[in-house]
Specification:
657 residues, alpha/beta, four-stranded mixed beta sheet, disordered N terminus
């Protein structure tokens, strides 16, 4: 009976005691945050400068004013705000003010984690606005984006979606920038290329029409500039986040806060986190550290990728040592999630043996292995103090400098649009477009020639020994047009070798006669070039006439060395290539062979001088072998091979292939 009475009495008491016990872990946090909110209704933790720098506070304050009710905002890392509802309730109890209380988790990965809201004596659809804001925002949204969308929901009856489609992303990631650069590079090549092809295709095809080619060329060049510049205006993002870039002051705030605390006591416990050491434990640990022969400073706080040290205990200790300017052993106890606390130490100038100092027991470094046991941080740190006391002396510690920390501004900066993949795609595309242009130009030329071709008999003018310039120009122009028509009509009927040989003759002759590309014989064409082109034209005509006969290329491979305008050489005679040279057999045409005498050398040389082709020179006509150029060089050597002549002409003009 007595037991029942005791249960009846104690049950209400335990019910009242439970909330008090539950709120107790957040008392120290609540006091700290309440004091911060008295100074400003928006508090941004100094532990997340890479993701939400404190310099962004004016932007959060501007959104808080839009709610229309007193609003208090806390922006904290996940490890601090893990029990958001309880923390907000405790902060309200300490602050004692009505209004809307908002806790935003600044995820160390670079976005937002969650939002918790509570209202006291104000009526706003806070819970619905928070839920719809989280559902609507994509993964790359920031804490400021979440708070802004939440406020929009408050002003829209709780609907934070705004009635629109959920976006896939709000900002440009490095991967998305690579895709944008590659697409821009492809468009920079493809669009001007298509415009150029269509423009060339649409140009008039009458004589002198090449002047119109400037229009598509200019249009393509303009588009090659407009496309990338326009894309750069459209894809103008320079950062992969919407938060302002952290300042140097943002990156120093937590270090300075901890340094200030360490100047008062060798033990500092993060004021924003649930205390991992009680006041009594701090005092006993501080007394133990003061008794050591070397200075030791202990810092208990969370580390994560969003802080100034990128979550690295060694980097934090190095910056703390630089700020304090005091040598000693720096111990960093990292407050992780699920009550896991990891202890790291760094020796900056203390005279202790480095190997023995870092030979820590696993229990001291990582804590109990059983997940249901507490972190036992005080006992571990006291054991660490004993370990330091037992460490023998050694040279002053000089740990390696912390390297490889990402720059907080560069880490969120996306590469310029017109770099990297853009340049690679443009180079590859330009090479491919050039090859396609060449192929398409050849196709258009063949099609244009086929439409205008006419079957007509070959007209072969005579070949005077000393032609004048007008005759060379007139004959070359007429026979070039005839060979072009014959080439089109021949098509592939003569076989690939025949067709290709005629094209080579036609191409080389055109290069000599029409270097301006206006489909006319150049007015300043030299006599030796006119004669060389006419030799090539007639070599091509000989192949066309003999297209149906076997071994045609062999019988038209050489031309008459006395007068190349006569065409292919069917016989050979002993001749003198040049003055002072020895006689040797050279290819000549049938007409020249018949004109030469039998065995009398003197008479033969006189006949050679009379029959050999002479061209206008500076002081009258001279033998063609005495003039510069591929034709004269080959003739003076005693053999004019058509393919070698084609090659030499192209080399003279700087044309390859």
């Amino acid at each position: 009976m007595t037991l029942l009475v005791l249960c009846a009495v104690l049950t209400p008491l335990t019910g009242w005691a439970a909330p008090a016990a539950a709120a107790q872990p957040h008392d120290a946090q609540a006091r700290y945050f309440a004091e911060q909110l008295r100074r400003s209704p928006v508090h941004i933790s100094d532990q997340v400068p890479r993701t939400v720098p404190r310099s962004a506070r004016p932007a959060f304050a501007a959104q808080a004013e839009r709610t229309g009710v007193p609003t208090y905002v806390l922006v904290l890392p996940f490890s601090v705000a893990i029990d958001g509802k309880d923390l907000l309730s405790a902060v309200h109890d300490r602050l004692g003010r009505k209004g809307l209380y908002v806790l935003l988790e600044a995820d160390g990965g670079g976005g937002w984690g969650d939002i918790e809201v509570m209202t006291y004596a104000v009526r706003v659809p806070a819970d619905r606005a928070a839920g719809t804001a989280k559902d609507w925002l994509p993964d790359d949204a920031t804490a400021l984006d979440l708070f802004t969308r939440f406020v929009d929901g408050l002003r829209n009856g709780g609907d934070a979606s705004g009635g629109g489609w959920k976006p896939g992303s709000l900002y440009t990631s490095p991967g998305a920038r690579e895709v944008q650069s590659a697409v821009t590079g492809a468009l920079t090549v493809v669009i001007p290329f298509l415009v150029l092809l269509l423009g060339v295709r649409s140009c008039p095809r009458h004589r002198g029409s090449r002047g119109w080619l400037w229009l598509p060329l200019l249009a393509a060049a303009a588009l090659a500039l407009i496309v990338p510049l326009g894309a750069r205006a459209v894809f103008g993002d320079t950062r992969s986040t919407g938060d302002p870039a952290p300042t140097a002051r943002d990156m120093r705030l937590r270090i300075e806060r901890v340094a200030t605390g360490l100047r008062e006591s060798p033990v500092y416990v993060d004021a924003e986190s649930v205390p991992a050491l009680s006041p009594a434990q701090r005092r006993s640990l501080a007394e133990r550290l003061h008794a050591l022969d070397v200075p030791v400073r202990v810092v208990v706080l969370p580390l994560h990728y969003g802080d100034e040290s990128y979550g690295r205990a060694e980097a934090f200790a190095e910056r703390l040592h630089e700020t304090l300017g005091q040598d000693g052993v720096y111990v960093v106890a990292h407050l992780g999630t699920f009550d896991r606390i990891t202890v790291r130490l760094a020796n900056h100038g203390a005279k202790l043996a480095d190997t023995e100092l870092h030979d820590l027991d696993a229990w001291v470094r990582f804590g109990p292995e059983a997940p249901d046991e507490g972190p036992a941080l005080h006992r571990r740190l006291m054991a660490l103090a004993d370990h330091i006391a037992d460490t023998p002396q050694g040279p002053p510690g000089r740990p390696d400098a912390a390297r490889g920390l990402p720059d907080p501004v560069a880490d969120d900066t996306v590469p310029p649009l017109l770099s990297g993949p853009f340049r690679s795609v443009v180079r590859a595309g330009a090479a491919g477009a050039g090859a396609l242009c060449a192929a398409w130009g050849a196709v258009l030329g063949v099609r244009r020639a086929r439409r205008g071709g006419r079957a007509r008999a070959h007209a072969r003018a005579d070949a005077p020994t000393a032609p004048h310039t007008a005759w060379l120009r007139r004959t070359a122009r007429r026979e070039l047009a005839l060979l072009h028509e014959d080439f089109v009509r021949l098509g592939g009927t003569g076989g690939d070798r025949v067709h290709g040989h005629v094209w080579d003759c036609l191409d080389a002759a055109t290069l000599l006669l029409d270097q301006r590309g206006d489909q006319r014989v150049d007015a300043d064409a030299r006599d030796c070039d006119l004669a060389t082109a006419l030799v090539l034209i007639r070599a091509g005509q000989a192949v066309v006439r003999s297209a149906e006969q076997p071994r045609v290329l062999q019988r038209t491979a050489r031309v008459c060395t006395l007068n190349p305008l006569h065409g292919p050489a069917g016989e050979s005679r002993r001749l003198t290539p040049s003055a002072g040279a020895r006689d040797r057999r050279q290819p000549v045409c049938t007409a020249c062979a018949a004109a030469l005498p039998g065995r009398a050398p003197d008479g033969r040389r006189d006949t050679e001088r009379e029959v050999r082709l002479r061209l206008p020179g500076p002081d009258g006509t001279v033998a063609y072998t005495e003039l510069p150029g591929p034709l004269g060089t080959a003739g003076s050597a005693g053999e004019i091979v058509v393919r070698d002549l084609i090659r030499d002409v192209k080399e003279q003009l700087g044309v390859h292939g």
